[in-house]
Structure formats: C-alpha cells, structure tokens
Amino acid sequence: MKNRKEIIDGILPTEAYNSYFRLVEMEDAEFILSLRNNEKLAKHINPTSTDMEEQINWLKEYKNREKNGKDFYIINLKKDGKTRLGLNRIYNVEGDTFEFGSWLYSPEAGPNDAVLGELFTKGLAFEELGFNLCKMETKKKNTRVLWYAKSYKPKFTGEDEFNHYFESDYENFKAHREKYLKLFNVKP
C-alpha cells in the first residue's frame, strides 16, 4: 500500500477547477512571505517574521514533515502554472484526521479562487489520502471566513478566547463542494 506522500506525488502537480495545483517548493518562499506579511491578509493569522532565511528554514522543516506524510502545503496557481494565487494546507495529521488551514490568497486572485482551492485541497485529503475527518480553527474576528465556515454547517467543537473550532466529515464536505461548484458553474 502506498503511503500518503507517494499518493500525493502521483497526483500533484495537476489541473483542476481551472487552476493548477502543486506542492510548495523553496522557490515559493518569497510569495509565501509576501502573503503572510501583507497587512490586510495577515490581520487574522499568526505573526510571521519578514526574514527570508527563517521562511526558507521553515520550508525545509515542512519538507521533512511532507516526506513523512504529516503536512502537505499546496499552492494554487493560474492554469498557466506560473502565476501564484494562494495557499492551502493539510496538516496536524493524526490517523484518519487532518486539519485544514494556512488558507491565504493573494489580493490578485479571482473571487472564487480561495474557495476552489479549499475544495480541491479537502477533496484531495478525503478522496485520495483517505482521511475521514477535517478539523479547522477560525479566528473569531475573521468574520468573513467564520461566516463561510458556518455556511456548510460543520460541527462546532469548541472555542477559546480567539478561535472557534469546527469538524466536518466527508459527507458534509461532498454536499458543501457540490453546492459551491454548482454556484460557480465549475465542473468537478
């Protein structure tokens, strides 16, 4: 049986939902740093150093987690395979559960790109990697993402001072994906 890294390597890079998806590489460090340090985008994420060397070191550590099937950082590009749009991540892998996050998209991305990136990434996790449960944390002050997260009726699992925590299973995801693909008029 193939491990999750072998499965990912057999799928990515690929085209889907009018975009191109691949695993993040060292060459993406500058793009990642530009998103994570964009004042508007960084408002609801954990602070990130502006030091390029620190970002490269973090990516090197990430690549080790990727090799072990514990973390998959996916970049969404325009169909040309060159223009970077945004990022999604499958991480905190435990058995048949993963966490979805690092959901960050460029201001130049189209209005549906972030949602399509989420649908692709979660579909990959559920349908190709065999996960059964997705966890997600959303900052309470990030009202736009919080509204979106609640729109597909995930199970609320708790909160702390800053975050709401949710879980959704594959059946919930399929219904959510079907609704948005139909809304965006995108073929699965």
From TrEMBL:
Report any Pfam family annotated for this entry.
Acetyltransf_3
Q: Which Gene3D superfamilies match?
A: 3.40.630.30
Which residues belong to any copy of the N-acetyltransferase domain? 21-144
Please indicate which superkingdom the organism of origin belongs to.
Bacteria
Q: What is this protein called?
A: GNAT family N-acetyltransferase
Q: Which organism is it from?
A: Maribacter cobaltidurans
Task: List the lineage, top down.
Answer: Bacteria, Pseudomonadati, Bacteroidota, Flavobacteriia, Flavobacteriales
